[in-house]
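Whether sequence alone determines local backbone shape is best considered at the level of individual chains. In the encoding step, the backbone of a single protein was reduced to a row of integers, each denoting a local shape. For completeness, the protein is quoted in full, as a sequence line and a line of structure tokens.
***
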Amino acid sequence: MNTLRTAAALVLACAIAAPAHAQPRPGTFPTLRIGQNVSGSLGESDPAMHERGRFKVYQFQASPGRRYVVAMESGDFDAYLTVARTVGGITDHMFINDDGTEGTDARLRFTVPAAGTYLVVAQSLAEEGVGAFTLRLDTVTIRPPRVQALTLGTPVQGELSEDDAEYMGDEEAEGFYDLYRFTGRAGQRVRVRMELGEFFPSVEVGTMQGGEFTPLENSNTGMQGALTVTLPEAGEYFLRAGAYGGVTAEYTLTAEERAAAPPARTVPIRRGESVEGELQDGDPELDDGRLYDAYAYTARAGERLRIQLRAEDFDAYVIIGRIVDGNFQEIASNDDNEDGEGLDSLLDVELPEDGRYVIQATSFAAGSEGAYTLSVESTP
């Protein structure tokens, strides 16, 4: 029932008009109260909508700033939950979930933008789904982050749970995180890696300003689980380790000092040529900690190139750009092959002017190592 492995739930924000039969006025629905278990059933006589199954609607009174969780359990069908409100005769489907627990149940955590009457739509995911279900609405305490001490070079075993602090401000990017504190020096390079099993972690290094975590520039891993940052000044820093999508799981977190990155050594490459190389510890690194090798290519204006990076040990990523005022400026990049399958990368690009270009052979995920083959061809 897991529709997205990277998240324990599918949470969408959209405004869609429901069919006329799905729009009874608030006040005609049974009331759902905090902490109450409600038993119900879906049958052939219940209405259906949105190309899914039958549904029943409940209403509840909500307040802004409170965190709610609604759970739907059924052994007869695959549960589907929606939290909505009616505005000007249009049903605004605010939060949707068909997962979040094991089996066929559904669970949804949310906050509301304003006080008022909200609707919980208890539905079957499949059109043919009917049977008994239970529904429960609770509030969840929004906890401030508990800061833990971190020693560079010492791995930490932790766990993301519903008792942890939560990312706030974006319902589509909800999730839990732990916060760590360490002391650093000006110019110190710190490498962070978080392993979260089958899920994609998010790690950031930053400071606390007015009680709020503020990440350093280029410190968010996105979905890579590793980063390298250079600390701008001596002082206290914080590491936020978490995952989006309501993921709860055990993790391993490592933060360690890294030596200064070596300067990139650029190797010439000509059209029609293939070279073999290897990403390995000690190679220069991009801002996000990815290792790379650099190749120089001299081109004509308007020349079209096909650059292919093949690898078996890591997900290949190829970048081409120019050095301007001592800084690399990207022109194009790609991490996929022509069919979008496998680990290889294929990049077709037209170069804008005569001169020297730099091709970076790197990986999609920080910390990846292994052998590769890079080829450059001129195309019509």
The chain has three domains: 20-140, 147-258, 266-379. The CA atoms of residues 101 and 107 lie 6 Å apart. Residues 20-140 form a domain with the Jelly Rolls fold (CATH 2.60.120.380). DSSP finds no helices and 27 strands in the chain.
